[in-house]
Amino acid sequence: MGRADFHSIWKYKLGPVLGFALLSCGFFWFKAGEKSIWAKDIEGMRAEVVREMVTSGYWLIPHLNGEILVTKPPFYFWLAGFCSLLAGEVTEYTLSLPSVIGGFLGLVWTFLIGLQLFNYRIAWLSTLILATSPLYILMSRTINLDMTLAWLTTATIGCFLLGFQSQGKSSSRYYLWAFTFMGLATMTKGPIGVMIPGIPILGYLGWKLIWRQEVADSKSEEEGKKQRVEESLLRKRLFTLCPWRTILIGIGIFLLITLPWAILVYFRVPNLGEILYLETLFRYERPNYQNAKPFYFYFIALLEALAPWSLFLPGGFLAVVEKYKAKSYHSTSLLSALVFLFLWIWPSFFIFSITSTKRDYYLLPLCPALALWVAWIWDNYLTGQASEGQQKLFSFAILSIAGIFLLGPLGILIFVYLFFPDLIKIALVLCLIYAILSSFLLILFLKSKNSKTSFLRSRGSLVFLVIILALAVGWGTWFTVGLPKMDSLRTRKEFFREAASLVGSHRLVNYRYNGYDLQFYVKRIVPIIQEPAQLYELLKSSDPVYILMEDTHFDSLKLEGFKTILIRDRRDPINPQKVRRMILISN
User: What is the pLDDT of residue 528?
Assistant: First the structure.
């Protein structure tokens, strides 16, 4: 490792900075915050916590609907609250701003790690791959903790690599920043902020100290002697010259960031131990815990999260296996980089897989490492290092992508014709664009098969750019056309705001509506009742009481003596017979 000096990157290479700014504007900032809250139980919860934090002025311990909420640490809530204070109000945009900025910073750190592990070309390829990956784009535009966690853990790893390759004060400074970022990651989502960067860092150091000796023993006598000398110097550096003082200071910084809030919560929340148990070990012990999925769930989620770049992963597996069997790593730095990526991805991936609770966005902190791996695969092809088997897998991936670009828009065209005929012209234009791009991709591929010049070396870069362009067109169309259309069908914002204006200062109660977007949009704490007897009692009250519910609960009740104040229907465009109704009633 250690292919690039950090200071020279920023002093002499302004291109990456401008490139990152362009990517973030195109994929993350464009129309950010215009979508209302869809995930009412997740995004709605985060939004309401920030709203109550800003409104009440009490920032130390998060509250949800007036009750203490300490299932997650507050760093994201503080960031979103600070953005809201600067803007003057809490909106969807200010709530998603930490994710938007986090997406940009994640690209920066992925680029820097690519320079440390590999080279300038792989750093750029990985950045473009990450910036066009579905999971990364979507999470950088929503109200969530995970993008903040992802860029902080990536920054922790990046600072470790920079420190490991530096000397003296520079090394200490990078290590201290690594502890700082790890502390902030822990304050974002708990112990996972330590686990994700800690496993590759400690595993890599252990491999450097212990198992690398086997590599040296397998080489020729002269090469093995040279590498054993290098290993001896490394051990001396780690054990004799290791900046233990810096490490102790770093641990102190980590504890200074995380411990005060933990102590505060310990004394303020009597059942803290039970909460921590439910959020950690309970998910391993109970196979049918909430959002339980089978063990293989993340293998499928991985293909979706990195699509279409995930089609190149089989070639990457084959490349690693072939290089391991042939011991053909060309340099110890390549072996070090591959080992580090392996330790970054797969131990955490396995730990995620054995938990009962599984969500696809839990993979987000691993996406930078996956993007680096796919970029290394592409670099193999572009530099002519791929074997015949790898080239066949690469060709299959290219043909699959060309097929997706050709057939996918046709499927969209049929879908739009059946359910959204007002968008048919846009769909036709999109089909034409993708037909041209997929044809261009196939022409490049077929022409190269008939030429003596390797396709992978002469036209691979152009193919990569065509894929990037096709993805940019797709995401741009979604942001400008698809997303507003879907938002108009899924949003509950207008209903809640109209209900709030009708209720005024009177009492408003939530009957079994499972979502905190209600509290966020009516801008008040709304008590939740679950039992019909409580509802009947409220309707008998002499004071005005307004009750909000969904039709699924309303139809199961036998209510008398109430007035229907407001009803709004939401019709499913795919199944017009399916109608969901929000209802506001009063006594």
Answer: 92
